[in-house]
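Case study 2.
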Amino acid sequence: MTGLFDPFALRSLTLPNRVWMAPMCQYCAPTTGADTGVAGDWHFAHYAARAVGGAGLVLVEATGVSSEGRISPADLGLWNDRQVAGLRRITRFLTGQGTVPGIQLAHAGRKASTDRPWRGGSPLAPEAGGWRPVGPSPLAFDDGHPVPAELTVDRIHKITRQFADAARRALDAGFQVAEIHGAHGYLIGEFLSPHSNHRTDGYGGDLAGRTRFALEVTEAVRAVWPDELPLFFRVSATDWLTEGGWTVEDTVTLAAELRNRGVDLLDVSTGGNVPDVRIPTGPGYQVPFATRVREETGLPVAAVGLITEPGQAAGILAAGEADAVLLGRQLLREPSWPQRAARELGATVPVPAPYSRAVRGRPRELVDA
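Prediction:
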């Protein structure tokens, strides 16, 4: 029976436990000048706190593989070497705490060029600091959103290379896990779903055509990502449409193809490609999708979505429903959730030596970072 604080080996990497931080955008990077997209003090403090709190893996937020691939102008980026330096400071500290640093590589597609969420998240026109988004088809995400420029095959190939280039930079920055973002209605997910992909060429039409871009990106990233390090892929298992959308059956098919191309774990979420769709949320509501992928393909999976309590998380692993859990907003509310979970479950999670007087658990040496 798998426990929440059991180590997890993927390729040559051993993650210290199965409580992981999900990628969550902070929208706090500089938006102009040479430091555009560079991680700063906020990002360092934010990710460092979760490492100190005991997360076994910290996945840094969706990071644009190009400037046009950002969700907002304030997103992190990995399209130049200056951005590498900012992230290296974070990975050095995380590894010093025994936490594995990971990063999500992303292109926002037709959902790019929006304002920060706390400013309303509305689309930004070029004159307001935004840009024209791109997508598989000239279909706006929602009312009030611009019609994206339909990508040519040449531009699709260029973006594929940008994912690979960003993966090289991620390795240089010290990351040990790379995750390709294929979920939540961003570019790769837009290609996957017939709701947003109306192409009639080799990147559209049937399932093979619609999954082609995702698989080519995966092959390009895997080709530059070291064999000894794991590669993740995040997917929305369903659009939550009764017809005309991406389905869990499609996800199972894709998962098998991704496994054949060197993906080591599927990070299973849902939704994001269709506005105002009804989603039956509740504790652990996305876990069954992860379980189905695991059972039908044998590919390891991480479950995410309203996993908030230690007993709940432990139960998911004990029942064999997932191989790890990803916590999102709960870790925003409670950075040291893993330490609380260990106390409640009678497990031991290391804590930094300077905190050992206050938190039960085996102290560990704090490495200079």
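Confidence is low (pLDDT under 50) at residues 365-369.
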